[in-house]
């Protein structure tokens, strides 16, 4: 039997960072995001020998070990091994069957599209299908969060896991004791289409280590730095304003909230912006952009720009000459999915 799965990557529209500890536990976090038609993929089947095989296809790296020797050491296969161990030890009663796990993503690590967390969701979804675990979206997202953040000790929030599991436009609430509420939004078709036509997604060509930025944000909150804490509260409220703008079809307000949210985001950690990002932002505004922000933690990866659709060609031409890449993308309403072959 072969099982395949895929989970969508996401764009963080507003509130990113308020889903990270300790802010979310102390104050509650609000995030507005949307999934796009770029995915993380996983395939499970039986290996030719009685080993556990982990194929990191993006890195061109293969690891084959006896199931009882699988560990969580860092490396290209770490996410795959982490999912294998958690599922086997917690949900299969300690049984570690021989299994071949293969995975790849449409976006590189450090892209700001939640690629690592989305990969974990794709893997959990594949294991869920392969072993008939009957996990729902909340359970898949929570399990993926625990594997990445607790089992593997990788820094970050939890919006990515829930976005990948549910799909579509979602307003998310994060509270203490792992309490999460996902509110899917019913976006009017014309708003959906207009926003797709207005959005330009640009890869800077520079991947960044989000953990360092997230660690700085968390440290600023723990130390009670007023400027960072105030910025976090603004980000939280701007997620609410973003939700209202989308539901009302007020795209001018959407752009305004995105831009003010980006200004607040830069106050939460010193490494979120840099001269390259500042130059790209200035270039975009000189060529028709109404709003700009980095998707994800900041520092590099993907940037989003909002413009009048009639100005899109001019903006794309200007950005294309800046050394990065334009990604043609569309929103997707569907979350993680899996299917069997044979």
Verbal overview:
This protein has 342 residues and is an alpha+beta fold. It has helices at 23-27, 78-91, 115-130, 137-151, 159-166, 189-198, 210-222, 226-248, 251-265, 275-285, 312-320; strands at 2-14, 29-45, 52-56, 61-65, 99-105, 169-174, 180-184, 199-203, 289-294, 302-307, 325-327, 337-341. α2 (78-91) crosses α4 (137-151) and α3 crosses α4 (137-151). It is globular and about 60 Å long. The protein has 2 domains: 2-185, Ribosomal Protein S5, domain 2, CATH 3.30.230.10; 189-327, GHMP kinase, C-terminal domain (Alpha-Beta Plaits). The strands form 2 sheets. Strands 1, 2, 3, 4, 5, 6, 7 and 12 form an 8-stranded mixed beta sheet that branches. Strands 9-10-8-11 form a 4-stranded antiparallel beta sheet. The mean pLDDT is 92.
Short summary:
The protein has 342 residues and is an alpha+beta fold. It contains eleven helices and twelve strands.
Biggest β-sheet description: 8 strands, mixed
- Large-scale geometry: globular
How many domains, in number, for the residues? 2
Mean pLDDT over all positions: 92
Give unreliable regions as ranges: none
End-to-end Cα distance: 5 Å
H and E order: EHEEEHEHHHEEHEHHHHEEHEE
Helicity level: 40-55%
Structural class: alpha+beta
> What is the second-level CATH architecture of the largest domain?
2-Layer Sandwich
What is the third-level CATH name, the topology of the largest domain?
Ribosomal Protein S5, domain 2
As an assembly, this protein is single chain
**Total DSSP E strands:** 12
In terms of DSSP E residues, the strand content is 15-25%
CATH top-level class of the largest domain: Alpha Beta
SS element count, helices: 11
């Amino acid at each position: 039997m072969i099982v395949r799965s895929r989970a969508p990557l996401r764009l963080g529209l507003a509130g990113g960072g308020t889903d990270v500890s300790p802010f979310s536990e102390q104050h509650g976090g609000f995030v507005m995001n949307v999934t796009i038609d770029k995915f993380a993929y996983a395939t499970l089947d039986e290996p030719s020998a009685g080993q556990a095989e982990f194929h990191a296809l993006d890195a061109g790296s293969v690891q084959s070990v006896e199931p009882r020797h699988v560990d969580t050491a860092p490396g290209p296969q770490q996410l795959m091994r982490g999912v294998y161990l958690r599922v086997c030890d917690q949900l299969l009663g300690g049984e570690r069957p021989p299994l071949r796990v293969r995975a790849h993503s449409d976006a590189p690590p450090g892209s700001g599209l939640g690629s690592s967390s989305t990969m974990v969701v794709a893997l959990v979804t594949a294991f869920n299908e392969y072993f008939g675990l009957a996990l729902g979206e909340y359970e898949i997202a929570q399990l993926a969060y625990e594997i990445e953040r607790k089992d593997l000790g990788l820094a970050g929030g939890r919006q990515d896991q829930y976005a990948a599991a549910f799909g579509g436009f979602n307003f998310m609430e994060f509270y203490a004791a792992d309490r999460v509420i996902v509110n899917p939004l019913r976006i009017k078709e014309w708003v959906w289409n207009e926003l797709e036509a207005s959005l330009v997604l640009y890869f800077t060509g520079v991947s960044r280590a989000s953990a360092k930025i997230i660690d700085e944000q968390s440290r600023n909150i723990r130390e009670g730095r007023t400027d960072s804490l105030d910025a976090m509260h603004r980000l939280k409220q701007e997620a609410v304003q973003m939700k209202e703008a989308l539901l009302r079809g007020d795209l001018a307000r959407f752009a305004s909230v995105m831009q003010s949210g980006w200004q607040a985001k830069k106050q939460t950690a010193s490494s979120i912006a840099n001269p390259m990002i500042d130059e790209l932002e200035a270039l975009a505004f000189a060529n028709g952009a109404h709003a700009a922000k980095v998707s994800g933690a900041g520092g590099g990866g993907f940037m989003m720009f909002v413009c009048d659709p009639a100005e899109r060609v001019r903006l794309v031409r200007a950005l294309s000459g800046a050394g990065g890449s334009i990604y043609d993308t569309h929103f997707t309403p569907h979350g993680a999915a899996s299917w069997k072959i044979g």
